[in-house]
Amino acid sequence: MMFAAAMAGVLAAMALTLVRALLGPTVFDRVLALNTFGTVTVLAIAVLGFLMGRPQFLDIALLYALINFVGTIAILKYLQYGDLGASGESPDAGESGR
Amino acid sequence: MIEHVVLRVIAKLLAPFIVLFALYVQFHGDFGPGGGFQAGVIFASAFILYALIYGVENARQIAPPAVAQAAIGLGVLIYAGTGVASMLLGGKYLDYSLLAQDAGHGQHYGILIVEFGVGVTVAAVMITVFFTFAGRRGVLEAREDVATAEDDEDR
Amino acid sequence: MRLVGLYLALFVFWLLMSGHYEALILGFGIVSCAAAVYIARRKDIVDDETLSWYLKPKLPFYWLWLLGQILKANVDVAKRCVLPGSRIDPCVFLAPADQETSVGVVTYANSITLTPGTVSMQTWDHEIRVHALTRDGARDVLGDEMGARICRVEGEQ
Amino acid sequence: MALAVDIASWACLVAGALLCFAGGVGMIRFPDVYARSHAAGVIDTGGALFILLGLALQAGFALVTVKLGLIGLLLFFTSPTATHALVKGALAGGLNPLCHQLTADETAALADEASP
Any CB–CB contact under 8 A between B7 and chain D? Predict the structure, then answer.
């Protein structure tokens, strides 16, 4: 019962962040919403594990938190440099590198 | 993004734990969710995070493409080798029960070895794919440079 | 020396995660930690910048204090999110960061971000650009209690 | 004793759910990406903290609690880093915050007010 209450809050937050991700208006809003959505998903997986009596789900939650972080950094790097592989000693290598 | 000090410090701190977490998932496949495929992806993500922050050129120094490509083959070899070994012992392909003195242990060890093969291959493939795609812009730019240089010569 | 420290930290992490203490799994743990240390060494990320910092005995106390700050700030920002009549008055300013090491500055920047109502936007060696949701939040950062506490953690041996 | 733990974990879970919801509302209501990052911070810190704490109280002293702690620790390190990187990226992307840029004098005045 108490897990259901927590789940309701988490699901509401997921819906609201998803609305923000769809509304935009800038790409950074979408990435922010996506990152927050990931955090809420981690919580949802953890609560779901307890709800279903299978705490092994926590490994998945931990993994999701990790992948969410790496993914967000990858998107931001792509937005800023237009390239995932740049070593990025100069922040504006895209324009003035050559 | 090496000049991004917050990212650099946090990534430095996390990196060894990501690798260890990957190996934990690898070896606890029969107790919880996990196994070779997931472990390989997490293992690769440690290198992807490194490549994102220090650049793909530096990451290639850490995980040389030649080693990664050899590892792809090695993983498949471990997988297939386990299967063939069980055939040589008189069973079917991947019949783990024959790998140890009794069936229970055989199953356990067999699964561990096969999962290890899967993990090695997946990690190596993920790293190779990321390096290939992340390095593309550099390749394209080099080609453009060559193309413009040839244009100049034609003129 | 640092490598041994990292190895021990990783092994404790493994024992906490694993929950299976048979010889086989423990053996895997020993080998896995060695592999993780080897990869970290290859990446050249085992240096004083991160490791020495986490041996400071005052750090847990700082974290506890930070937790209290986070809870206070959470209630405030959550109210501003939900209550219909509430207003926000965002501002951007430069806050001094007197920490000497880069990890000190990073701890400060992340502490600012962790406290809802203030976000660190850019960091330099001795300055952080901060975005605050309210003037009260800005005043709290500029009062520099947090920064001073981090300096005290940083200063001990 | 068991009842007290149950009540505490109830309170934590409800508080976490409410904070998550409040953060979600803030994500919709606030005017620009910088203000929204504060609302995201509420979910990342308060919401996550209370929900994980409530679950840990339910689990008791076990391996599960340790894993909940590790999730909390990971979020504690990664979420501010991701938010900081995002805000920095938005600033570098030429997105100006909808707010007042304090001058050096105003900053000094606020600092004076803050220090007793």
Answer: yes
Instruction: Kindly list the domain boundaries of chain B, sorted by start residue.
Output: 5-136
Nearest to D38 by CA among C83, C141, C132: C132
In a domain, D82, yes or no: yes
H or E, element range at C121: strand C118-123
Structural domains of chain D, count: 1
Q: Is D101 a domain residue?
A: no
User: CA-to-CA distance for C28 and C22, rounded, in angstroms?
Assistant: 10
Extract the runs of DSSP E, i.e. beta strands, from chain C: 91-96, 118-123, 127-132
CB-nearest partner of D28 from A14, A16, A73: A16
- Please report whether residue D83 resides in a domain: yes
Task: Give the residue extent of every domain in chain C.
Answer: 2-46, 56-155
Q: Which residues of D touch C89 (CB under 8 A)?
A: 99-100
Helix/strand number for chain C, H first, E second: 7, 3
Task: Tell me the shortest Cα–Cα distance from A74 to chain B, in angstroms.
Answer: 7
Q: How far is C33 from chain B (nearest CA, A)?
A: 6
SS3 state of residue B46: helix
Most D CBs within 10 A among A1, A3, A28, hence the mutation to make, goes to A28
List, for residues B30-65, the tens digit of each pLDDT value. 776 777 888 899 999 998 888 888 888 888 888 888
CA distance D29 to A16: 10
Residue with tokens 């279903």: A52
pLDDT one-digit tens code per residue, B58-102: 888 888 888 888 888 888 888 888 888 878 777 777 777 767 777
Distance from CA of C76 to the nearest CA of B (A): 26
Set of chain A residues whose Cβ sits within 8 Å of the Cβ of D16: 6, 9, 43
Give domain status of residue D105, yes or no: no
Give the CATH class of C56-155: alpha beta
pLDDT band with cut points at 50, 70 and 90 for residue D92: confident
pTM, entire model? 0.86
B105 has a chain D CB within 8 A of its CB: no
